[in-house]
Amino acid sequence: MLKKLSLLLLFVGLTATSYAQIKTPQPSPAAKMEQVVGLTDVSVEYSRPAMRGRTIFGDLVPYGEVWRTGANANTKITFGDNVTIDGQELKKGTYAIFTIPNETSWDVIFYSDSNNWGAPQKWDESKVAAKTTAKVEEMPMSIESFTLTFDDVKTGSAILGMLWENVYVGVTFEVPTDKITSKSIETVMAGPSGNDYFQAASYYHAEGKDLKQALAWMQKATAGDNPPFWYLRRMSLIQADLGDKAGAIATAKKSLEGAMKANNADYVKMNKESIAKWQK
Description:
The protein has seven helices and nine strands; from the N terminus they run αβββββββββαααααα. It has helices at 2-19, 177-189, 194-206, 211-221, 229-241, 245-261, 265-279, and strands at 30-37, 40-47, 76-79, 83-85, 88-90, 93-101, 105-111, 128-151, 157-174. Helix 4 runs antiparallel to helix 5 (229-241). The radius of gyration is 32 Å and the shape is elongated.
């Protein structure tokens, strides 16, 4: 019995050991940074190789060749809005950052396919979304780990900085802060839209709040020619709940007419049923 128990414990121990996983630190640890530039969200994901006594540029990273700009999977940058780099518009989305380092300048490439591991096996020029050249600046000290930064952050622009060894390279990108802000100002200063009035009235009606206020908002939402039939439907329900059956019927008939033109069977049915109910 003891022998069987010992064998069982040994088996359990071996099984547990076979499923155990050794955890060790990555030589090029992953990093992520986020920055709001003006009103635009920008984020970068990359891995950070270290010098470890090696000569980097011109040796470990050869001059004149495409470099993944980091280690492991592609270094990725994501823009929440369209941005501009060296006069080139870059649509919002995620891009791989590739570089071609040289002694006095780097070519910096934003590549639309960010799913490679390292540089693409087959370079596709049609996937180059933007390309610019940046000057190499010599640092007064050595940077042990490859580092990306957001520098000189302003309301309309920032610099994506790349540092390693004694080298700094910066690429300026511009964000549409003025365009977004101006549009926001124009929208707010113009006052609520018909949809704003509709949403507010719908909430008041659904929650049983001030129905007179809800009706006033619906009157503003439906002012003008050809208001949406679903707006009119909501207005008729509010009128009915306020006891104005005649007004509700008249509004429901307008909603019915619009729903029939749009071939919306659901609203046709609902309006017909409501009109019949309120006419009793």
